[in-house]
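Recall the central idea of this unit: under ordinary conditions, the amino acid sequence of a chain determines the structure it adopts. In this exercise we apply that idea directly, starting from the sequence alone.
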Amino acid sequence: MMDGLIAGRLYGTPEQRIGRAGKPFMVARMRAECGDGENLFVNVIAFDAAPCAALEALREGDALTIAGPITPKVWTDKQGAVHPALDAIAHQVLTAYHVEHRQRQVLSGQERQD
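Accordingly, the structure predicted from this sequence is:
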């Protein structure tokens, strides 16, 4: 596992699920464009409240960036072709809304230390 920052577009609708201990979490899939023009699927899971809320607010096709640990994987399609993929735990989720909100804070002089 390694830390990563991945940008892409949401593929499908994020789903809230409940863990064995009764705690909710979110799962989602996103497509990140690779340098060779192909897309890399990223399986995303989030446990903390802030990234869960950010994922829940998104819809298919929305742009997002996630930060957190990633694990390289492979998957095989119906024709038997092998494709790379990533599993990621989203510790942070950044969307266009977050960028716009932050810019408004800075421009209005309401910037605060996080």
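Strands lie at 2-18, 24-33, 39-46, 63-76, 82-89, 92-95.
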